[in-house]
Write a structure and sequence with these properties.
By secondary structure, the protein is of the alpha+beta class. It is built from 18 helices and 24 strands. The strands form five sheets. The chain has a six-stranded mixed beta sheet, sandwiched between helices. It has a six-stranded antiparallel beta sheet with strand order 9-8-7-12-11-10, with helices on one face. A hairpin with a 6-residue loop joins strand 16 (403-413) and strand 17 (420-429). The longest helix is centred in the C-terminal third of the chain and has 45 residues, at 431-475. 23% of the residues are buried.
Length: 675
């Protein structure tokens, strides 16, 4: 660390203390400021600042924001506390609003200089800081003088009435000057407080114009600025109203205060289409990262020449504050615009979507999510844990009310980090898709079964017909009684085989009018279905408890037969060897009831709510598709019926089918439709 003094005679040149950890910056500053007649004291060590301020009469302290030992704000804050009369300037390579607020509020920074700087801007800012420091010192001297005079007056009060009178006049004058200054300061504070509450450019300019008119003869304000889309805009007052206009070309980019500038006046005349008289042009301060074209404020006025200097002082004290306020509002409007665009995009997604943090707390969600998704926090948390464990996107299926959703959980990582910070939850409603898939699988199964049964019928019916024909021919022959008995048995067995083949074909047949309900007798349909299940029922006991009078219900016979077939197959698969299956039919009110009961292992409690979900199965891979019970439920509802179940673990399960009875009116309607 080095400390360098570039000052041949400190008493003749105003002294600047510059602290920066970059030797090249310090060397450049010494050379540039020396050329303009400033005394320069530089150091790379911020810890030396206070001691150097103590030893030297420094007017301006310049500090770089980013230094390894302490920040520029910290250095300037220490200087403010110990040497408040020194003007403080901060150098930064970037602009940040929070940094600006912290620097002004905690360190009392007078000016900001951004890297890289231009020579004119740097010298201009340093000179203004010098003037500011001298003004502070003058105020301090004046305050000290007032204090000294008050003390003298206190001492002379008793005996020197004339002196007290004279001195009182001087003090009153000084107090009046001070009061004027305090009044200006209070006005400035009030101005700042009001601007902080303003969130609209029109409101801001309206307040500023009213504030101006209380003191000066000002006619109109005209603000030219770049909007959210970087388009040229003009906001101007006309009588008591405010108007905004889109401009075709830019205004002057001169970065200096101008009085009655001809170029500015021509520009205003061209756009406002009216005469323009006396004007002041104020380029608003530019901050790092902004466009090269400054937002500009034009003021039409009718000021007397004697009041121009006072007006300029007024504007100079408020220009930086006004610039910040305008910049803040435009920046907030841009944020709001971008936020709304993002929200519109988010809400345009038809499926529910939301963003959650690591704890599963919802940070943002679209309209579809708000309408359709509720009480899924546990599912989301489990999926988040799975994503963190597998380190990749995960998918979960769940049912909510009458809908089935596919939940995709996608991790969001920071650009510069591999750590996951948030998750996107994307819900896709696959209810219709699953329903179509279930129907497709069922239709394919039945089509395959139909093809198989057709081939079997073709291959077996021919030889069976020949066997029955020969048996019937031989029965007409004069044969011994023992032969006749055997031939009768052959004929009956052949007939049973043909009936099984016919039942198999009817079971798999796809009818064009399958959506139409007709009268179906439960007992008859059960008897027709059981021969198809002989191999599955061979190891178990079957008990039929059918109503004495067969029960007619309104149903699709093909679909109802498939439902009965599936439920009996499931019951067989749930049984050990020599299990028991009971099938019962009865009437209850206006409904026909069919119950299929087994004494198997029962359905575990934890999966009972899911057994009707599509693709849910407890069977091993390849043994089941998970479509059986889902198909049964959807088909029963399609026919206007219900399917329910009761189960006890290790005792068995009972499935109950409930269908509307075929009334006389329905029977007559059905007969007419067949006619």
């Amino acid at each position: 660390m080095r400390t360098v003094v570039e000052n041949s005679n400190p008493s003749e040149k105003p002294l600047i203390l510059w602290v920066d950890d970059d030797p090249l910056v310090l060397s450049s500053a010494r050379r540039l400021l020396g050329l303009h007649g400033f005394g320069v004291l530089t150091t790379e060590n911020p810890n030396e600042v206070l001691s150097l301020l103590e030893k030297n009469e420094v007017l301006v302290l310049v500090a770089d924001q980013r230094m390894p030992q302490m920040t520029g704000i910290e250095v300037l804050k220490l200087a403010k506390e110990k040497y408040p009369l020194v003007a403080r300037v901060m150098i930064t390579g970037f602009y940040n609003r929070s940094l600006l607020e912290e620097a002004v509020n905690t360190a009392g920074v007078f000016r900001f200089i951004t890297k890289p700087w231009s020579e004119n801007e740097l010298i201009n800012d340093i000179r203004q800081a010098m003037d500011h420091a001298r003004q502070i010192q003058k105020n301090q001297i004046l305050t000290n003088e007032i204090r000294k005079q008050n003390q003298m007056l206190q001492q002379l009060t008793d005996n020197l009435e004339n002196i007290v009178f004279d001195r009182t006049k001087e003090v009153n004058k000084s107090n009046k000057d001070q009061e004027d200054k305090n009044k200006r300061i209070r006005g400035l504070v009030h101005f700042i407080q009001n601007l902080q509450r303003v969130e609209d450019l029109t409101e801001l300019l309206d307040f500023f114009l009213k504030d101006l008119k209380t003191t000066f003869k000002v006619e109109n304000l005209i603000l030219c600025f770049l909007d959210n889309n970087s388009e040229y805009q003009m906001l101007f007052s006309q009588k008591k109203d405010w108007h905004q206009k889109l401009l075709k070309k830019a205004w002057s980019s001169k970065n200096e205060i101008r009085t009655n500038d001809k170029e500015d006046q021509r520009y205003l005349v061209d756009n406002l289409l009216r005469p323009i008289h006396k004007t002041f042009s104020f380029p608003l301060l530019k901050f790092h990262g902004q466009e090269s074209l400054p937002n500009s404020l034009f003021i039409e006025h009718d000021l007397e020449e004697s009041k121009v200097d006072r007006f300029m002082d007024y504007m100079t004290s408020r220009l930086q504050i006004l610039s910040l306020a305008v910049d803040r509002i435009i920046y907030l409007q841009k944020i709001e615009y971008n936020s709304k665009q993002w929200e519109y995009t988010f809400d345009s997604v038809r499926n529910p979507i939301c963003i959650v943090n690591m704890e599963g707390e919802k940070l943002k969600f679209n309209t579809s999510f708000k309408k359709e998704i509720k009480n899924v926090a546990q599912i989301e948390k489990e999926l988040i844990a799975k994503v963190l464990r597998e380190k990749s996107r995960q998918i979960e299926f769940f049912k909510k009310d009458d809908k089935i959703f596919e939940l995709n959980c996608l991790p969001i990582k920071e650009e510069t980090q591999e750590m996951v910070t948030h998750f996107v939850m994307y819900y896709r409603d696959i209810t219709e898709e699953r329903s179509l898939y279930v129907k497709m699988i069922q239709n394919e199964k039945m089509a395959a079964l139909g093809l198989l049964s057709g081939n079997i019928a073709h291959e077996l019916n021919n030889p069976l017909t020949g066997i029955r024909s020969l048996a019937q021919i031989l029965l007409n022959e004069n044969l011994p009684q023992s032969y006749i008995s055997d031939l009768n048995e052959i004929d009956k067995a052949s007939e049973r085989c043909q009936n099984v083949i016919m039942g198999l074909r009817e079971f798999s047949e796809v009818k064009s009018n399958s959506n139409q309900l007709e009268i179906v007798f439960l007992g008859e349909l059960i008897q027709k279905t059981l021969p198809l299940l002989k191999s599955a029922l061979r190891r178990h006991q079957l008990h039929l408890h059918l109503a004495s009078e067969d029960i007619g219900v309104m149903a699709d016979p093909r679909l109802l037969q498939q439902i009965i077939f599936n439920l009996i197959i499931n019951a067989c698969q749930a049984l050990q060897d020599n299990g028991r299956i009971e099938i019962r039919t009865e009437k209850r009110g206006i409904s026909g009831i069919l119950e299929i009961e087994d004494n198997g292992s029962g359905i575990p409690v934890e999966i009972r709510e899911r057994i009707f979900d599509p693709f849910f199965t407890t069977k091993k891979e390849g043994e089941g598709t998970g479509l059986g019970l889902s198909f049964c439920k959807s088909m029963m509802e399609k026919m206007g019926g219900q399917i329910t179940f009761q189960s006890q673990e290790k005792k068995g399960t009972t499935f109950k089918l409930k269908l509307p009875l075929a009334t006389k009116k329905r029977r007559q309607s059905n007969e007419n439709s067949h006619c």
